[in-house]
Amino acid sequence: MIELDERLRGIRDQHREAADDLRARALAVDADPAAMEQHLDSPTFAMIRESSIPAAHRTAASAERPDRGTCLESVVGLVELFHGDVGVVLSCPSPALAGVFVELLGNEEQKARFYGRLANGRTWSFFAMSEERAGSDATAMETRLVPDGSGGWLLHGAKRYIGHGARGGVGVVFGRTGRSSLSIRAALVELPTPGWHAEPLEMVGLRGAYLSELRFDGLPVAGDMLLGEHLPVTRRGIWGALTTFNNMRMQLAAAAVGTGLAMAGYVAEHRKSAPGLDLVLARAEAARALVYEAAARLDQEPEQGYLSSAAKLGAVRMAVEMAHWAGRALGPAGLLEHPLLEKWTRDVRALEFMDGTSNIQRLHIFRGYQGGHGG
């Protein structure tokens, strides 16, 4: 079991203080996720963005802010933020998954361009891998990077279910330069640019994530914007994507734990006697402990996603069961009388479909066990 040291407790407490501000914005962001201007100057949004930017790329005003350097540090902070509201956290302009990938594969110039675009707090990033027919299965990807004859590339294809795709300013887009798995590459794309078409998708839960559909019609990519050129071919597209998804899985598990704890606390606040409260809280704390353990393991072995899949599987199941329990505990009209709880009930359902459904996570766990990583 992971014991929090002084640094981790400091990260936890700092992020815990932000939960109330996030929760106060939850219903407004859910009602109109496109109307973000009223939220963007929030000190909480600045903290979320800046703590995810490496110190070397921060502005002078935020250089002293502590960061979340390891996966465990990130998860400890994120559980507290998600305890405020998962949809609002996801609505915040920040490096997010694209930042994880750029840190892994970007050179110093690419990192400076990426983080420089995010400094104003009004630019969203995007991570465009998933496609309508292939999901996040990179081996079935159809988007292509075609040489333009002058050292650059032209991007053709489409992506779907891309967070902030329709309002992003900078991000990572995956495409094929050939048919083998080693030909799958990622490019840093800055907007606006010709050949980019995007529109938001209708969403039931996690509306703050602003999932979008993208289309590329000969979008130009400069040759120096292909990520990982300075790395061996085996450490480029696929390797970076798998490592990033392992990290994403931990963030989603943290989202499930934070939202589950929020629902339990909400019920306790509105019902003096809620049958089963101690049991559901114990399950939520057990899920938190597993998430911490999986994050610490991922820091030691970034390429091994076995335990992160188990953490996401268990945390999402706990959160969905918590939502059912909370609805029963508040009575027949509980979700009508408590719109925040109704929103969280939709949000935790959406977590099931991000970075692989529960059945996909079971496959990851089985393969990890077969590979000897079950200890």
Q: What are the SSEs and their pairings?
A:
Elements: H1 6-16, H2 19-31, H3 43-51, H4 71-84, H5 86-91, H6 96-105, H7 108-118, E1 124-128, E2 144-147, E3 153-163, E4 168-176, E5 184-190, E6 196-200, E7 211-221, H8 237-270, H9 277-300, H10 306-329, H11 334-337, H12 339-351, H13 358-370
Parallel strand pairs: 1-4
Antiparallel strand pairs: 2-3, 3-7, 4-5, 6-7
Helix pairs in contact: 1-4, 2-4, 4-8, 4-9, 6-8, 8-9, 8-10, 8-12, 9-10, 10-12, 10-13
Task: Name some characteristics of this structure.
single chain; 375 residues; alpha+beta; Butyryl-CoA Dehydrogenase, subunit A, domain 2; Butyryl-CoA Dehydrogenase, subunit A, domain 3; 3 domains; four-stranded antiparallel beta sheet; three-stranded mixed beta sheet; 7 strands; globular
Please tell me about this protein's structure.
The chain has 375 residues and is of the alpha+beta class. The chain folds into 3 domains: 6-96, no CATH class; 124-233, Beta Barrel (Butyryl-CoA Dehydrogenase, subunit A, domain 2); 237-370, Butyryl-CoA Dehydrogenase, subunit A, domain 3, CATH 1.20.140. The protein has 13 helices and 7 strands. A 4-stranded antiparallel β-sheet has the order 2-3-7-6, with no helix packed on it. β2 (144-147) and β3 (153-163) form a beta hairpin. α2 crosses α4 (71-84) and α4 (71-84) runs antiparallel to α9. It is globular and about 70 Å long. 49% of the residues are buried. The model has no long low-confidence stretch (mean pLDDT 92).
